[in-house]
Each structure stands twice: as structure tokens, then as C-alpha cells.
Design goal:
The chain is mainly alpha-helical and 196 residues long. The chain has one domain: Lysozyme, CATH 1.10.530. The chain has helices spanning 10-40, 46-56, 60-71, 91-99, 116-133, 138-147, 149-158, 162-165, 169-188.
Length: 196
């Protein structure tokens, strides 16, 4: 009595299993980055961001990146130094934006920084002010948002590459985090600020 070979012997399944594993891995690799990064980089308050960023001539993706880095989208956030809201603004900074005529104080109050729309308005105004001060140098504006304009002026005198001159590890990390977040938001939400 002869034995016929089985069609689906275990050793014949190995190539099929390998192909299936690579297929699943390939599918996960294709979709996982957007799923993972989408969860890590949420986007909220698009309407407020569009309105204020357009009004002040600031890249909305930069605004989203600052919000992500500063408060992780927590409108009730308060820093140990007293910065408030989504974009972690000091009330004095917000009042300064009113005093300089950049923000309309009859519409927005520096005392209302826990309101998302108000905070984003003042944050966009301040980013715009910094960008103008630094002649459009985004890296300097980002660093100044964290460390102050005077420090950035001092660092800029020391080296043409700002990152090399920054002496505060926190500001170096902040510049990297905001820049990375901006790239992530541009990749994840390419059309989010176009239709509004």
C-alpha cells in the first residue's frame, strides 16, 4: 500500500505563512504611521486657528505645533510660571499685544486666556510679532516663544546657526519639538486648513 503525499503538508505551508506575515507587516507599515501619529498629534480648534493665523499672517501648522508642544491641547493648562491655556501665554504678554494694537482689546480680554479662541488669537498675535521682530526667521521666533527675545538676540550674535548657540537645553528641546510637530501636522493634515 503506497502512501500518497498530502497536498497541504506542514512544510508546504511555510512559504504561505511567510508571504502572509510579510503582507500583514507591509499593510501595517503603510497605515500604522498615520494611525499612530494621528493619535499622538491630534488637531482641534481648526476654525479658530485658521481665523487667527490668517489674521496675523502665521502658518496654521506652526500654531498647531506650538499648541501641541505647549499644552498638548489642554485649554486649562497652567505652567509653573503662570502661563495659561492652549498656547501657554502669560497674561502680561497678552496685555502687551493689546497695548501694541495687535489684538483688539474690545473683542479679546487678556484675562480670558482659558478660552480657546481668545488664547489662540493672542498666541497667533505673539507669534506674528516674534516673526516680524526676527525678520521671518521661524527658528528664532520659536526659540523666543520659549526663552524670550533677549536670549535669542544674544544667541544669534554668537552663531549663525541658532541651534548651535542656544545655551538652554530646554529651549533646544523646545525648538526641536515644535519643528517636528509642525512637520507631523503638515504630513497628517495636509488639507485641514485649506477649506476653511
Amino acid at each position: 500500500m503506497s502512501r500518497r503525499p498530502r497536498l497541504f503538508s506542514w512544510y508546504r505551508l511555510i512559504p504561505l505563512i511567510v508571504v502572509a506575515v510579510f503582507g500583514v507587516a507591509s499593510a501595517l507599515f503603510s497605515f500604522a504611521p498615520s494611525l499612530i501619529f494621528g493619535a499622538l498629534y491630534p488637531l482641534h480648534h481648526e476654525g479658530y486657528i485658521v481665523q487667527s493665523s490668517r489674521s496675523h499672517g502665521v502658518d496654521p501648522y506652526l500654531v498647531a505645533a506650538v499648541i501641541k508642544t505647549e499644552s498638548d491641547w489642554d485649554a486649562e493648562a497652567v505652567s509653573s510660571k503662570g502661563a495659561e491655556g492652549l498656547m501657554q501665554l502669560m497674561p502680561e504678554t497678552a496685555q502687551d499685544m493689546i497695548d501694541k494694537g495687535i489684538v483688539d482689546g474690545s473683542v479679546y480680554s487678556a484675562d480670558n486666556l482659558f478660552d480657546a479662541q481668545t488664547n489662540i488669537e493672542f498666541g497667533c498675535a505673539y507669534l506674528s510679532y516674534l516673526l516680524q521682530y526676527f525678520n521671518g526667521a521661524t527658528d528664532r521666533a520659536i526659540a523666543a516663544y520659549n526663552a524670550g527675545m533677549g536670549n535669542v538676540d544674544d544667541w544669534a550674535e554668537q552663531d549663525t546657526v541658532l541651534h548651535n548657540a542656544i545655551t538652554f537645553p530646554e529651549t533646544q528641546a523646545y525648538l526641536f519639538r515644535v519643528t517636528t510637530a509642525q512637520e507631523r501636522y503638515e504630513d497628517l493634515y495636509p488639507d485641514s486648513f485649506l477649506s476653511q
